[in-house]
Amino acid sequence: MALALLLGAEAAGIEIVRRRPHLVVRIDGREHEVVERDEADGRTRIELDGRPLALACAADGNTRFLRLGGRNLRVSLVDPRDAAAAGEGGGDEIRAPMPGSVVTLHKAEGEAVLRGETILTIESMKLQTALVSPRDGVVELLLRGEGQTFDKDEVVVRLASPSAPGPSEPAPPEPATAEASPAADAKGAA
Amino acid sequence: MRRLRSAISTASAEFQRHYAHNRRLAEELRERQERARHARPQRDLDRLERQGKMLPRQRVERLLDPGTPFLEFSSLAANMAYDGESPGASCITGIGIVSGREVVIHADDSSVKGGAWYPLTIKKIVRCLDIAIENRLPVVHLCDSAGGFLQLQSEVFPDRYMGGRIFRNQCILSKLGVKQLALVFGHCTAGGAYIPGLSDYNVIVQGTGAVFLGGPPLVKAATGEEVTVEELGGAAMHTSVSGTCDYPAGSEEEAIAIGREIVAQWDRPRKWDCQREEPEEPYYDPDELYGVLPDDIKKQFEMREIIARLVDGSRFHEYQPNYGTTLVCGFANLWGWKVGILANNGVLFNDSSLKGAHFMELCNQNNTPLVFLQNITGFMVGRAYERAGITKDGAKMIMAQTCSRVPKFTVMCNGSFGAGNYGMCGRAFDGRLLFTWPNHQIGVMGGDQAANTLAEVKLKQMQRNGEAVDQAVIERLRDETRAAYLEQLSAWYSTSEIWDDGIIDPVDTRNALGMAITASLNAPLGESGYGIFRF
What we know:
Strand order of the largest sheet of chain A: 1-2-3-4-5-6-7-8
Number of strands of chain B: 15
Largest sheet of chain B: 8 strands, mixed
Distance between the termini of chain B: 34 Å
CATH topology of the largest domain in chain B: 2-enoyl-CoA Hydratase, Chain A, domain 1
Distance between the termini of chain A: 28 Å
Low-confidence stretches of chain A: 166-190
Order of helices and strands of chain A: EEEEEEEEHEEEEEEEE
Oligomer: heterodimer
Helix content of chain B: 40-55%
CATH architecture of the largest domain in chain B: Alpha-Beta Complex
Largest interface: A-B, 32 and 42 residues
């Protein structure tokens, strides 16, 4: 079984070849045998390919903090769902989550936006919703003005595609201060 | 289960503004509760002292196991009724721990008009007994009431859910094998006499406690017989002659001690085996709820940010994350208990309604209690949606919700308007407990909509009658309607009328739900099955 790990910030793959009588793992095509010994003093010691090393380990969720042979290591299991989420940069279009009308435009065409920044506020069914930018970028087109109406799933804002030269400097990457909205960012806090 | 990732910046100006607004509401809640619980006219306090009686809250405190929580119901009931003359609707109800057992407590508040029952007092007592029935919780009654508030007798006596319902519920509880204990601290007259009479066990305090169908003045008027309270229905007579009462007590303290020992004899109800993990505090601080909630009922907010501040470890397994996105559905643990959460992230569309119905079926099959987090302005309206069958899809959601066999809990997190309230287990749908947040508003429509609709009607009327259109009149009507609506839409009004089981500080929600879910598991799961789903 191959496992994807993060060793610090580095990606690493490790394959478990055998568990008995001793653990054998394969890393970068080479096999290593690991023998674990609990010492009388309560410490743990392993032998890695015959080489003795002291080991201490603390767990926090999917992350392990190790002290191994005098070195501190942080190892975490890569969750494939995190990897999938990281690949989503957010599209160029913002669609209306429900039919309604524009209450306020917070940005003008050509203006830079940060991920999570509100571009416009809409109202539908007594409810005001902030439509936020799915990524850092530049507002290319605002397809509805204040007071104008739209249908569900209509595109109301288009962002300049990242390759296209924008009229202003691209915004610096900063942590998003999001008013998350259900449609513009269906992932929300998840 | 993975942790939700919050996108809220607690440093942002908006968060701070929301935080200040909702924190203020929570403060107002505390102040109102403090008044309802403790502010009493001096003469009433003097009277109780003269009679050698404890205050009702002192009795409740003595009864509960020291250091255990008390989940009080409807602490602000009647806060906008009877010119404020019946704080807390003149009674205390809630779930507490007595001798290690979860019980429902009903305590008359003799510090208000002798503990007389107002219409809302009866509604509150009946509701706490309904809670006892639905959750199979034993009841301890702390009796000290002058009886029905005679000036309002038409509202306390004749109808289905009025006075008689208290005694009906007592009988049903007994038939279900759910135990009841009454501690008689004051007079139990007329109907009130049946509370100890219908309890499995009762204790009566010598000197102040009395039980009779008609008190001495009524007896004299009816038959001319002259008799003292003690002879007619005192502790000595009832515990040694009539057998109506079981244990005499020399003082209130002694009565409570005897009561606690009686409860300690009861067999412990066996809870059904709801799935449970090791409980974990939320990763995100519930205090941040104040900043997540908006400062305007119209402003949409992200419900996952609420979920992240209620559930164990802020962990949430979301079901169908990309379908029907205006209804967030998923699994979480709360106080360790597995729950299925349905939370509004916008108007209910066809797909969100179907997803909700489907998710509830999954939870019913999986024995997973349901938690509804309401912020709903309704099902979507308009031609396209009617043609797509929004009504029948909404009907499916309401059907699945109503017929659910697992316990249901509702939190009114913000707005609750129109039929969305039904799909999301509003008050009419027999949720085990329903809590309200101070920012909550509820109504068939919003205040602005009602004001504009009525102003429009008035304008048409003026034009039809050939009157000169007086804009000032129209505006006044609009403002008055909005003001009247706003008052009735408010959480204070809602809780005053007992449309909920209490208004709570958002930060207390996790514990309130935790206690509620734990208590609910005493009752067996309901019958499986639904009515007809219209496809």
